[in-house]
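Subject: Predicted fold for Site-specific recombinase XerD, 354 residues

User T.R. writes:
Posting the sequence so we have a shared reference for the thread.
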Amino acid sequence: MNIKYPGLLAEKLPSGATRYRVRVEGDKKRRIPLSVEPGHSQFVEVYRAARAGIIITPEATPEERAIKYSIGWLAAKHLAAMEREVAAGAASALTLKKRVGVMKVLTERYENYAMVMPQSKLVDLRDAFVSTPARADSIIEGIRSMYRWACERDLCTVNPAIGIARIDQGKGGAIPWNSDDLRNFRNRHPPGTTPHLCLTILMFTACRIGDAIWLGRGNETKIQGVTALRWQPSKKGSAEVSIPMLPPLYRATRAASIQGKTYLLNGKGGQFASTDSLGIMFRRWCDSAGLTGRSAHGVRKAAGHLLAQEGCSQYQIMTIHGHTQAQTSEIYTKGVERWRLAKDAMAALESMEW
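User M.O. replies:
I've generated the C-alpha cells; pasting them so everyone works from the same file.
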C-alpha cells in the first residue's frame, strides 16, 4: 500500500543519492531537510514535525520532538520532571508508571492541541471512558496534576481540569477479606510457603503490597525490648510505621527454607522484580484458593476493620496504616464507633420503667 506524504520532496543529488525535504505547511517556500529516510522507524514522526516547521532528529527527546506549547510538549516536560523526581527519591516509580499511562491517553487524542485547551475537550475525554468510571476519573486526576505542576512553574496560568466532576460512584474499592477468606487461603497455602508468608505480612503489618515486596530483616528492630518492624511506606506523604512483630508474623518469616534480604522471594530465590509481578502472583494464589475478586489491598482493609472492631481508635489505626490524615482512617472506625455509641446509649434505657 502506497502512503502519500503531502509536501514530501525526493530530490536526486549529483552524487546519485536521494535527499528528502518537506515543505512546511502554510509556507511553501520553506523546505526542511529530513534526517531520516522513508522506512525508518521514526520517519513519520520526523516528517510530521517538519510539516509543522520543526526540525528534529531520532535522538531528540520527546520534549524536543513536540510542537512547543502543545499538549504533547507539556506532557513530555511533565514526565521528564517526574523521572528526575523518581531518580532523586522524591516520587515513586509506580506513580510515574501510572502518569505515563495517563499522558499516553491524553496525547493520543490531543497531542498537537494548544496546551491551554478548552475544558470541554477534557470532559469529552473523561466521557470516552464512561464504561470504566474509575479509570476515567484517574485520567482526569492525572491531567489535573500535570496542569497543577505546570501552573506552579509559570508554564501556563489555567488548569482546565479543575472542576471536572467525578463519574465513579464508588463501590467501596477493594473488597475487605473476611475470616472465611483468610481461612481458605491458609488452607490452600500452608505455613512455609511464599503465599502464606505474603498473606501473613499483609495481615500483621497492614502494609501495602508495594512495601511488602521489600520488607525484610533489615527492618527489624528493638523498641523498649520488643521486637518490632519499622519502615517508611513508599507512598508519598505516608508517615513512618513502627509496629510490634507479633508471633504469627515472626514464625512465618522464619518458616521459609530459603532466606534472603527480603522476606518474600520468588520461585528462583530472588526478590520479586516489581510490585506488579508480586500482585499478579498474589491474584493467582487467590484464584487457586477459590477466592475471586480478592486483592492484597483487601487484606489491608480487613486489618483496618478488625482493628476497629477490637476497639482501636481512629488514631491508633492511623499509626499502623501510616496515614497522616484522620479522615483516611475514619472509613474503618465510623460504622463501628456509631454502633458502639448506639449500644451505650440504648443501655441507658434498659433500667427505664415502661
